Amino acid sequence: MKKQKNKTAGIIRTRFLLSLAILLFIRIGTNIPIPGINYQQLFFYLQSNILANNLIQTFSGNKGFTIGLFALNIVPYINASILIQLLISFVPKIANLRKEGIYGKRILDRITRLITLGIAVLQSGIIAFSLKNVLYNWNYFLAFQIILSLTTGAMIVFWLSEFITEYGLGNGPSLLISFNILSNFSNILGLLIKNNNLSINIGSLIIGIILFFVALLLVILLQLSWVKIPIISSKLLNSSKYDISAFLEEDNNYIPLRYDTGGVLPIILTTSVLYGMDLFLLPMLKIPILSQCYQLFYWVLFFILNGIFNSTTSILIINPTNLSNELKENAVSIKEISTESGLNTPIYLKSQVIRAAFTGSIFLSLIGVLSNLMTLVLPLPGFSKFGLTSLLILVNVISSIYREVQNIIISNIYDDQETSIIK
Asked: What are the DSSP calls for 244-268, one per residue?
C-alpha cells in the first residue's frame, strides 16, 4: 500500500514539476525582447498613447514597454478554438469529423493548428504595422522580422501547451491563461505592499474580501451544478418484466446540462460588445447626466446580452437535434417524453438548454456585478483585469486538475490490482 502511494505521488510530482518548468520558461520568453525595435522610442510613444499602451500590455502580460518573443502567448490558439467550435456548429462536413473517432480528431487538430498559425500571423501583423508611426527605422523588412518573431513564439507556446496537456498536469492552454492571471494578481499584491500609502481603509478592504469570496462561491456553485434530464432505455420501457415506475424514480440515469455550457465565451462576447459601445459613446459620456444614466443602461444590457450569448452558445455546443438523433440511435428515451404524449424530443431538449443557460446567465451576471463592485471598493491599479472571466477560468482549471489527480490515483489502483491478479 505504501509503495503504491509513493508511486502515485511520484507521478503527480513529476507531472506538476514538468508543467511548472514549462510555465516558467514561457514566462521568461515573454520578457525576452524581439530584435530590431528601438524600445526607447516605443517607451516615449506609449507614455502619451493610452490605447497603444493597453494593446502592448495586453499582449506582453506585464507593465513594461517590451514586446517579448512569446508576447502573443496562447491567444491565437484560443481564438482558433472558438472559431472551430463555430465551424462545427455551422459546417456539416467539419461536424461529421467529430464522429470519425481518432482519424476525425487528427483532422480537426490539424485544422486548428493551421487556423492558429493564420491568426498568429494576423495578430503579429497588426502589432508590426501599428508601430509604423512610432519607430523611425520602420520598414517592411523590420515588419517581416517582427511578424516572424511573434508568430514563431506563438507556435512554440502552442506546442508547449500541447506538451503540458499530454505529459504534464492539467490542460495546457487553460493552465497558461491561469498562470498569466495569477501573475497579474501577484503584480497587484506587490504594488499594494510597495505603495502602502494607497487610500484604502480597513472597511473597504474587508468588504472587498467578502465580495471576492461570495463571487468565488457563486463561481464554484455554477461549476458544480447542472440540470438533470432523466433517461431510460426503450427496451426496458417496453418490457413487462420490470417495474418501470420504480426505475423512473431512480436518479442514476440522466443527461447532465451544465448552466455554463458556453464557458467564458458568453462573457467574452458580452464584454467585447460593451467595450466597443464604450468607445463609440465615449464623447457623450463626458456629460455627467448621460454618464449616470449610462451606468444603469450598461448593466441592464449586460444582463440581456449575457443571456442571449449564453443561450446561443449553449444551443450551438449541445445541438439538441444531434443529441436527439444520438439518443434515438442508442434506443434511449427521455423520461418526460416517455410518460407524456405530444412532446418532441429536439424541442424539449432545446427548451431545457435555454432554461439552463438563462439560469446560468443570471449567475454569471451576478458574479459580474460582484466583480465590478470589488474594483470600485478596491481601486487598485490593474485590479479591474482580475474580474469575472478570471474567476471562472481559475476555478475551472483547479477543478480539472483535481479531477486529473483523482484519475491518476484510480488508474494506478486498477493497474496494481491487474498486476497482482496476473501474478
From this structure: HHHHHH-SSSEEEEETTTTTTHHHH
Torsion of CA 398, 393, 161, 87, to 10 degrees: 130
Kindly list the structural domains of the chain, giving each domain's residue range(s) and its CATH number in brackets, ordered by start.
1-198 (1.10.3370.10), 200-379 (1.10.3370.10)
User: Taking CA 200 as the corner, what is the angle to CA 194 and CA 203, rounded to the nearest 5 degrees?
Assistant: 135
pLDDT per residue as tens digits for the range 147-186: 999 999 999 999 999 999 888 888 888 888 888 777 766 6
User: pLDDT (tens digit, 9 = 90+) per residue, 23-67?
Assistant: 999 988 888 888 877 777 777 766 666 556 655 555 554 555 677
Tell me the C-alpha distance between 260 and 227, whole Å: 11
The predicted model scores a pTM of 0.71
Q: Name residue 332's beta-bridge partners.
A: 233
Sign of torsion, CA 350 351 356 357? Answer: positive
Which ranges of 39-139 does DSSP label H, i.e. alpha helix? 39-48, 50-60, 75-90, 92-97, 101-130
Nearest to 257 by CA among 232, 231, 235: 231
CA 372 to chain centre: 19
Strand partners, 314: none
Backbone torsion region of residue 342, taken as left when φ is above 0, otherwise alpha when ψ lies between -120 and 50, otherwise beta: left
